[in-house]
Amino acid sequence: MENAPSLIELLKRNASGDLEALRRQFPEAAKLFSTERMLGPEDESAIPTAENVSGSGGIQPGRPTPFPNRAAVIALIETSLNTIIAEMDALTQTIRKTMKQVSRTRFAGAIVATIAGGLTSILALKFPNEVVQAVTAFVAMLGGITTVTADQFERAPSGVRIASAEEYAKLVEARSKVELIELKIARDNIIAISRRDLYAMLDELNDYALTVKRLQLA
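^ SLATT domain-containing protein, sequence as received from the core. Prediction below:
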């Protein structure tokens, strides 16, 4: 994919000033900053590199040949990283807080269930069976309420288990991969990133933007 429409939408919503600055800085790369889905770039094997260019054209061996809009792609990735990291961190904190509430509620339910078992045994020694059954049913009801409450905390209004361990783990993993992209971009002056890898990073950030949007709208 030659652009990242979901990523651009995220920037438009959360960092519109930065997006407009990029559009002014790179007017020739208008398609890159579009929210319309574009086809991917051509295969990098067809692009001249230092290994297959004859003569001394000043290209450093082992470094990818610059391609049109390379600076714009890198600038977009750098700008997007700040926004995605901020949004992911906010989501992580919110989900973690909700997970703690779910954990406490389920722990309370487990305590109620444990008390119910012991209470039934104690009451059976001194009270009629009807009393024991009534108290046991009441305690069981409390346990059921805590279970339902925990389930409601875990699920978003859309039904997505947003506070589940699985969703949290996916978000944390995505956050670590974003940091890896940030590190690679920071080292581009030392180890130049190929066109294919740059667009792969852009695609990956676009997927993370979709993840952020899905969790925010859940």
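The chain has one domain: 6-38+68-217.
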